[in-house]
Specification:
Elements: H1 20-29, E1 33-36, H2 45-55, E2 60-63, E3 73-75, H3 81-87, H4 92-103, H5 107-110, H6 118-123, E4 128-130, E5 138-140, E6 158-159, E7 162-167, E8 177-180, E9 183-185, E10 196-200, H7 206-217, E11 222-227, H8 231-238, H9 247-255, E12 260-262, E13 270-271, E14 276-289, E15 292-293, E16 299-300, E17 303-315, E18 321-323, H10 332-344, H11 348-351, E19 355-360, E20 369-374, H12 389-397, E21 408-413, H13 425-435, E22 442-449, E23 462-470, E24 493-499, E25 502-506, H14 519-528, E26 539-543, H15 546-549, H16 553-562, H17 566-569, E27 570-572, E28 575-578, E29 581-584, E30 588-591, H18 606-616
Parallel strand pairs: 1-2, 3-18, 4-12, 20-21, 21-23, 25-26, 26-30
Antiparallel strand pairs: 2-3, 5-17, 6-9, 7-8, 7-11, 9-10, 10-17, 11-14, 12-13, 14-17, 15-16, 19-20, 22-23, 24-25, 27-30, 28-29
Length: 626
């Protein structure tokens, strides 16, 4: 079964993809998509292929023969920035114009030619109500849907590119709707087959507000899960829009047309051009969901999450199941992040006063690490500048939008370094380490909400955050060699100078309990207090494998910030607490070892990898692409 007939008509010159099929037609004719007619397995094999395809910047791949499944599946659809820009080539400029007008409305009068497509995009924002659509042509069951399993320990088949649609029970309608890309588990030991699916949504998600309203009203929350359909709907589902702006409106602007939604009595609107729609209501009880390999590079373990009682599963006749793989960055969702940054970077100063630039670091799993550049203008007349406005900026970042999920917020002042950029990571860390006073510049928030997927905290959804701010002139010169005086206590070894001023070393295996300091780390801090000549190495990071961590920046950022909780895992030489403020007069020490209570890191299945090697070998159907 294949959605692209050989005699399919070419899309209009003014390209707006009203469904997935029209997008795939155009991608194939322009060399952005290939068909794979060899039978492949949705259990582990397809995910392994997709990960390799993304790394190789390969075309999108349409798999027409999926083992035990009658629906074709498409991977790597958004795998490169060039392809995602190609998909939205006729609407992207207008959407950028809408954002530009938000910053400077008078630019319309200065450069009217920039905004020729804006009226059409604004007109397309409001969805169009229709009575019927292709998605209702056929019905199926949950078990007949593609059952993608990406990692060996995954708890069942998952939807990895869902569009989960809800409306406010208090204020129904498109204007108060939410559409997010929340994890959907189709099968597993805990679910009643064909009647229940798992719905994992994390904290600070719009669906949670709708669910809370429904519970207060004493009624079930209706949910529609769309898969496929216009590509603009998929991108809208991951867009971090401000609260109160409906994703379906943004989808209309990005798609270039009014999104057709089917209204039926007593039900939620259904995306008319979706490939699939799972309709149901959230049950009054929860069930274990997971495990699942997530975007931090570890498994999310099984926890109780809402259950969707399934009323119906619809699909169009030519339905195709799009999918991606979630795992340690970079993955396909990295491209989503880059695309979103491209659209919204100029809006940052409008949302966060005093902040010039932010960078949610993909290599560190996005939420664990946020780098930012801000202003320091509170006392410009001071003889020695220190962080003041920067602290306000850091707290604002932790109090608004998706940046509130950040764990480490590291923010520097631009005024004394006009070239400082949060996207030049080596230079940014150099700038911070040259200026930071660790007795003053760390500001902790303890026992607060953290990202649901982060297992470094003291419990699910609970841990700590820190704002590390630096301003003023340089305080130290960073060493570019290991200090000759460096000695380490028993159990620690293999020191590496990873970057100027940063030492990575191996520590003993972690055995402490959750929510307590490790005496071994305190022993290290006491030992380093007796070592002279450490002023040029203000940051020590303790890990399980020093060679791996110090191999490159991606490894360093991933290990350091996904395996540490600020309040529990930061130590310091000469540490002290004064009036509840913690600091240290010597180097800061980060315990970035895997903890005894952490979730396991993701590992591939060797047998599956060998099968994919065969597919990619000379003469194989994927040779030259992987």
């Amino acid at each position: 079964m294949c959605c692209i007939p050989d005699d399919a008509p070419h899309p209009e010159n003014n390209v707006t993809y009203r469904n997935l099929s029209s997008c795939l037609i155009d991608l194939e004719r322009n060399g952005h998509l290939i068909r794979i007619d060899t039978e492949v397995d949705a259990r582990l094999e397809l995910a392994a292929i997709q990960r390799r395809a993304f790394r190789a910047k390969a075309p999108a791949m349409l798999f027409t023969r999926v083992k035990g499944c009658r629906f074709p599946m498409v991977a790597n659809l958004y795998g490169t920035r060039d392809r995602i820009r190609f998909i939205f080539r006729d609407t992207l400029r207008a959407v950028e114009g809408i954002f530009r007008l938000k910053i400077d409305p008078f630019d319309l009068f200065r450069h009217p030619q920039r905004y020729l497509g804006v009226p059409r995009s604004l007109w397309g924002m409001m969805p169009r109500t229709v009575r019927r659509g292709p998605v209702l042509e056929c019905r199926t069951t949950v078990r007949e849907l593609p059952q993608l399993v990406s990692w060996p320990m995954d708890g069942g088949g998952y939807v990895t590119l869902p569009q989960v649609y809800t409306e406010s029970p208090d204020r129904p309608g498109f204007m108060h709707s939410n559409m997010g890309m929340y994890r959907v588990q189709l099968t597993g030991d805990h679910y009643e087959p064909d009647r229940e699916v798992g719905l994992h949504y994390q904290i600070h998600r719009g669906i949670g507000y709708h669910h809370a309203e429904a519970l207060r009203r004493g009624e079930p929350l209706r949910v529609n899960i769309f898969v496929g359909g216009p590509p603009a709907m998929t991108v809208a589902a991951v867009m971090p829009l401000p609260e109160g702006i409906a994703e379906v409106l943004f989808a209309g602007a990005l798609g270039g047309f009014r999104i057709p939604m089917i209204r039926r009595a007593g039900g939620l609107p259904i995306l008319a051009e979706a490939d699939f729609c799972i309709s149901g209501t959230i049950a009054p009880h929860q069930k274990p969901e997971g495990p699942f390999g997530d975007h931090l590079g570890y498994y999310s373990l099984a926890h109780d999450f809402p259950v969707l009682r399934v009323d119906a599963v619809h699909h169009r006749r030519d339905a195709v199941w799009p999918f991606t793989t979630v795992g340690r960055p970079p993955q396909e969702d990295t491209v989503f992040g880059e695309f979103i940054h491209e659209l919204t970077a100029a809006l940052v100063p409008q949302v966060f006063a005093g902040v010039h630039e932010v960078h949610a670091v993909d290599a560190a799993g996005v939420h664990p690490l946020l780098l930012a550049v801000g202003s320091e203008r509170y006392v410009p007349y001071a003889g020695e500048r220190q962080p003041q406005e920067l602290i306000t900026c850091g707290m604002a970042l932790l109090g608004n939008t998706q940046t509130s999920l950040s764990k480490y917020v590291i923010i520097g002042a631009r005024e004394d370094d006009r070239d400082l950029s949060a996207h030049d990571i080596p230079a940014f860390f150099t700038h911070m380490l040259e200026r930071t006073d660790f007795s003053r510049d760390l500001h902790f928030i303890t026992r607060t909400t953290i990202d649901t997927l982060d297992y470094t905290g003291i419990s699910l959804n609970q841990g700590s955050k820190v704002v590390w701010a630096a301003a003023g002139s340089r305080r130290r010169d960073l060493a570019d060699t290991l200090p000759e005086t460096l000695t380490l206590p028993d159990g620690f070894g293999s020191p590496r100078l990873f970057h100027k001023g940063i030492v990575v070393l191996r520590g003993p295996r972690h055995t402490a309990r959750r929510d307590e300091h490790d005496p071994a780390m305190e022993r290290l801090a006491q030992s380093l207090d007796n070592v002279r000549g450490l002023s040029g190495v203000p940051l020590f990071v303790v890990v399980d494998d020093a060679d791996f961590t110090a191999a490159d920046w991606d490894n360093f950022l991933w290990v350091t910030f996904t395996r540490s909780d600020p309040a529990t895992d930061l130590y310091g030489v000469g540490a002290s607490t004064h009036c509840k403020h913690w600091g240290c007069r010597g180097p800061l020490i980060v315990d970035a070892r895997l903890k005894s209570f952490h979730a396991p890191a993701l590992e591939t299945d060797p047998e599956v990898e060998r099968r994919v090697d065969t597919l990619a070998a000379p003469g194989g159907p994927l040779h030259g692409y992987l």
